[in-house]
Write a structure and sequence with these properties.
This protein is an alpha/beta fold and 439 residues long. The chain is built from 10 helices and 13 strands. The protein has helices at 87-90, 122-136, 181-197, 210-226, 235-247, 298-303, 306-322, 324-334, 380-384, 422-431; strands spanning 2-9, 38-44, 67-70, 98-104, 108-114, 201-209, 258-266, 288-297, 352-358, 386-393, 403-409, 413-421, 435-436. Helix 5 (235-247) packs across helix 7 (306-322). The protein is globular. InterPro entries: CAT-like_dom_sf.
C-alpha cells in the first residue's frame, strides 16, 4: 500500500484576488453523532490504480536535472461526494472543519485531508498527521505532545481596552503596502490587464533532484570560501534562487521591473510567545507570517549567478530572523482592532510579486502509515512509504498566479507546485532552461 497525502486550502480572496474577506466559523462547543468534529469517508476500489486512462503519479520520474510536469488530475481521489466543495458550503453551521477521505486501491491508498486554510497551515496539518501516525503505530496516546483545546498563544498581543495605538517598526508591514486610492486603482488595473493578456492560470509540478541542489550548494559554498567569506547558503535558498532564475529567464536583460518576493514563514520556532520564547507545544492552527525579500530587479535573475541570488535569499532570512522586536511589533499591530482584515498590497504599482511557501520542515514524505496496513503480504517499504504529497483548492477559488509551494521531499527530489499564466509557462518552456516533461 502506497500513500498519497493531500492538503487542501481555502484561500480568503475574491475571484479577482484583490480583496481579502473576513469569515466567521461557527464551531459547536460539544460534539455528538449528529455533529461530528471530523468527517471520515472511504471509497474502496477492488483493483489496481496503475492502469490505462488514469493520471500518472509524478513520483515515478527519475533524473539528475530539474523538470516541470503537467499537474495530474487527482482531485477525485481525495474528496468524498459529501465533502464541501465551496467556501459557502464549508462555512455552514455543523460542518466539520476536518474531512478525511480514503480512496483504496490494491497498489495505492490516497489519503485526502481537506481543511480550511483560514484555520490551519500546512505545518499544523503536518503536526496533526504526525500525531495520527504515531497513534496507529502503537505509541502511547498520552505520551504524544498535544495542543490544548483553548490554546491562545497570541493572546498577549491583543491590546487592553483603551491602550494606545501601536505602529509597526517596519517600513511596510511584513512586506505589504498601504497604497493611496490612485495607486490602488493603478495596481488593480495592471493586475487585471495582465490577466486579460494571459487569462488561463495553470498549475505544474516541479521536480528538483537533491543531487542537483547539493552540487549547486557545494559550488556556491566553495566560491564563498575562496573569497574568504563566512556567509553560507542552504539548499532551500538555492532552490528558491534557482526557481526564480528559471521563471524569469526569458525576460530582457534591460528589464528593471522590481520583483517583490514573499516567503511564508512559520512563527512556531520564533521567540515571540510566552517568556519571549518559541511555542512550547504543538500548534495546528495558522501561525504564519511573511518574510519579505528586498525588491530584486527582474534582470538580476537573468544576469546574476545562482550563488548571488541564493545569497540575496539567505541575507533576507538572516535580517528577518534577527529583528525579533519588529516581528513582535507587527503582531501587536495585527491583533489591534480590525487591522487583521485591512487590505495590504504585495507590491506597489509597476512592480511584480510572487509568493512562495516552503514546508519541507513538515516532513510529509517521512510520515509512516504502516500501522494502518491490514495485509502483510507486501514488503514493509512498499507498505509504509508516502510516495507523493499533492494539494488543491476548492473549485470556487481561483489560485493566484505567481504563487507556489514546496510540498515535500523524498530520498531523491524536492517537489513543488507552482501556478502561472499559460503564456508565461510557454515562454519559460521556449527559453530552454528547464525540461518540460511530456512536451
Amino acid at each position: 500500500m502506497g500513500s498519497v497525502v493531500f492538503i487542501d486550502g481555502i484561500l480568503v480572496t475574491d475571484p479577482d484576488n484583490s480583496v481579502f474577506k473576513a469569515y466567521e466559523f461557527q464551531i459547536p462547543e460539544t460534539f455528538d453523532a449528529k455533529t461530528p468534529p471530523t468527517a471520515f469517508t472511504v471509497d474502496d476500489y477492488h483493483e489496481t490504480y496503475n492502469r490505462a486512462g488514469r493520471p500518472q503519479i509524478p513520483s515515478a520520474l527519475t533524473g539528475s536535472q530539474p523538470s516541470i510536469i503537467p499537474l495530474p488530475e487527482l482531485d477525485q481521489f481525495f474528496r468524498s461526494k459529501t465533502c464541501p466543495k465551496t467556501e459557502a458550503e464549508f462555512l455552514k453551521p455543523y460542518v466539520p472543519l476536518l474531512h478525511i477521505h480514503f480512496t483504496v486501491f490494491h497498489d495505492f491508498t490516497f489519503i485526502g485531508v481537506t481543511v480550511p486554510h483560514m484555520g490551519f497551515d500546512l505545518l499544523g496539518i503536518a503536526v496533526l498527521l504526525a500525531a495520527w501516525t504515531r497513534v496507529i503505530n502503537g505509541d502511547d496516546f498520552d505520551a504524544i505532545p498535544g495542543m490544548e483545546w483553548d490554546a491562545q498563544p497570541f493572546a498577549h498581543y491583543v491590546p487592553a481596552p483603551g491602550s494606545s495605538s501601536v505602529t509597526p517598526t517596519r517600513t511596510s508591514l511584513r512586506g505589504f503596502f498601504k497604497l493611496g486610492w490612485l495607486s490602488k486603482l493603478s495596481f488593480i488595473g495592471r493586475f487585471m490587464l495582465s490577466n486579460l493578456l494571459d487569462p488561463k492560470t495553470v498549475g505544474y509540478i516541479v521536480r528538483v533532484p537533491k543531487v542537483f541542489l547539493n552540487e549547486a550548494k557545494q559550488k556556491i559554498m566553495d566560491e564563498l570560501k575562496a573569497q574568504g567569506s563566512s556567509e553560507y547558503v542552504g539548499s532551500s535558498d538555492v532552490l528558491m534562487a534557482w526557481w526564480y532564475k528559471t521563471v524569469y529567464s526569458y525576460r530582457a536583460p534591460t528589464d528593471h521591473t522590481p520583483i517583490h518576493l514573499h516567503f511564508a514563514s512559520s512563527l512556531r520556532s520564533r521567540s515571540v510567545f510566552a517568556q519571549d520564547g518559541p511555542l512550547a507545544h504543538p500548534y495546528i492552527n495558522n501561525a504564519v507570517s511573511f518574510l519579505p525579500v528586498p525588491p530584486v530587479p527582474v534582470n538580476a535573475f537573468v544576469k546574476e549567478s545562482l550563488g548571488d541570488l541564493a545569497l540575496r535569499v539567505r541575507r533576507a532570512i538572516v535580517t528577518y530572523n534577527a529583528d525579533v522586536a519588529a516581528l513582535r511589533a507587527d503582531l501587536r499591530w495585527l491583533f489591534e482592532g480590525s487591522n487583521a482584515t485591512k487590505m495590504g498590497f504585495p507590491c506597489p504599482p509597476g512592480a511584480e510579486f510572487s509568493f512562495s511557501t516552503n514546508w519541507r520542515n513538515g516532513k510529509l514524505g517521512a510520515l509512516d502509515f504502516s500501522g494502518a496496513v491490514v495485509s502483510h503480504s507486501r514488503s514493509e517499504d512498499a507498505a509504509t512509504r508516502v510516495v507523493f504529497a499533492y494539494y488543491s483548492y476548492t473549485p470556487d477559488t481561483i489560485p493566484m498566479r505567481g504563487v507556489g509551494a514546496v510540498m515535500m521531499e523524498d530520498e531523491d527530489a524536492v517537489w513543488m507546485r507552482q501556478f502561472r499564466g499559460s503564456k508565461d509557462w510557454e515562454r519559460i518552456r521556449q527559453s530552454g532552461v528547464v525540461e518540460f516533461a511530456g512536451h
